[in-house]
Predict the structure.
Amino acid sequence: MVSPTQNPKKTGEDGPSTPSKPAFEPREGKQVKSSITLPDELWHTVLECPCTFPTAVFNTVMLNLIKNPNITSSHLFRADIFYDSETDHSFNPDDASDPYRDGLVAHMKKELQPIRANWPDFRLERTVVRQLIPRNPQLDKPIVQTCHIFEQSRSEGEQTEHRQLVLYIPHVLKLENMPFYHPTVSQLAFLHTWKSSSNLPESIKKLAVSEETNGGSQEAPGTLTLLYRLFPSETLTTKLSRTALKLLQTIHKHGQGQLAGYEKRVHHDQIIPQKRYQDTYTLLKAKYGRHLSEKWVEVTDPGKHVFEDIAIAAFLIELWRDMYAAPQLIVPMNGNGGVPQENEEDGGTSREDEQLPSFPGFVDIGCGNGILTYILLAEGYPGFGFDARQRKTWSIFPEETQCQLEQKLLVPKVFQDAYSPTDSTGQTPSSDSSQPEVWHSGIFNSSSSPTNLPPKEGPFIISNHADELTAWTPLLAYLNNSSFIAIPCCSHDLSGARFRAPAATARARAEAKEEKGKGKLDHPLAFETKRLPQQQQHEVDEEDTAAGAERDSLSTPPSPMKIPESGSLRKSLVQQRLASAYSTLCSYVVSLATDEDLCFDKVEMETLRIPSTRNTAIIGRQRQQMDGEEGEDIESRLLRVKELVEREMKSDIGTVAREWIGRAEGLMKKPGSGH
């Protein structure tokens, strides 16, 4: 017996009860009287549950699951769509013998053509053929699957019963050929039944009230049913029942979420198509994953660091494929001794490559364990990495990689020029890190770099969880005329100190306040950073009001009283309006890049598919040419950066330089971590 998932109302002493979501209450197929005719005796009703979302919502959910099977199986990457009848103008669902006659299907490979199917008393509406792509193709092979959408409507008086059935048919004939990630059934179907009437909106309203007040005792106007078509001589196993429960629960959850107005907050693949990224990731994972994990010498988890850096390398390679002509590939692990090789698909010269600039090299600032640098070098992209501390991992790399990894301390040239090598007592510091030979100026088009990089365009700057260097990344990119990617982690200001970043630069905040003073802005400054209520000094009676939150964004409250902690984990209205420290850090880096001194006019953001909550990539690859910039020497650029740093830090450059170098000296003394 399948136990229903209870979803009781939540009550507490600190406030009114929280409205509950409709409960997921599945019933076994034995308890369900079938309301439709099944095609044959191999079909079985497995589970059914009530739902409160209409057919249109079910259709939206199922189309999303067809396109994104990874939602229901963590073993899958995605689905590649080979055919969709929506784009086939010859598709004729009224042709029972062959609805695809004379259409696109005739030109497809036989193994990719949709498998014909009918369902008694239902009308075919749409057909999709997809290929399920597994995360690990070395364990499981991709399979092709036909997805049919059928519909049926019946009216009786003022009531209409509408049914939509989604049928999955894997292109697998034998049970033993079914991959692990797919249920061991020959077909499966999802049926949505919806009873509607002229007063349906009112009935839905009453239903919602009923569920909140008495636990959902009123009968729902809809049902979800899952059906299996078993292979001959097979029975319904416990594993198949568990799979059915998970599938039905996912559809119910997504349907109720859609009904409640859920909107997806995180959008992946805005810059690089999902297929390109995942295909490259799969290749790199097979090539480097086990090799690096087995040789891991740090105390940290290789499963996180290795595969996170492989994923970032895959993203960078695909990003560079769009920006630069592909370099010759160097394959040091294939027995060719690292000899550059032409690759027709990845490294060969194409007509598109001839129109793209040559790759300018890369520099991985704060490279940490060096895995990202190693993979990019091994894939044929010239560059180097440096970090304040040498890592044990560097020793496992080939010699040609080790000589491109250096223990260096980034002391930006504006700091070096302003730094006086004396401490507060007037004595010269004795630390080795205060010696210029272990410093890197952040000017990469110089002979001091380990590799000779083209002077016309600076190297692509990589700042992957580089902490103190994150805010400096767009500044270094401006100084070197480089493109960059920054993946922020911890928040540090331009002196290297920990802080909660504002969401914009001082200049941008001042300009916005000036605009508001002129009456040109009629809303609070969206990027004003506020502390949490229990840290904020303000009047108690406004702590949870929208007016108080709006006031806090523009002024300092007068009351010296601090808000006591209530013990409740629920967010107040003020807290709900606060952006997270990570999101404001990302916004701050974007604001630095787009500052009129640096002029990156196209800064893009992408949520990376990596095993980390710090997964936002900020990419600057287009700068707006400023008046008089052509022929601008490095000294002029350094002056702009100096002025920006002093403006942000509200201090002279010499003071900021001493703070940076003092912190950097301590950083070099710390033991290296896995990253």
In short: The chain has 16 helices and 21 strands. The mean pLDDT is 81. Residues 269-335+344-420+431-498+584-626+633-675 form one domain. Residues 52 and 385 are 56 Å apart (CA to CA).
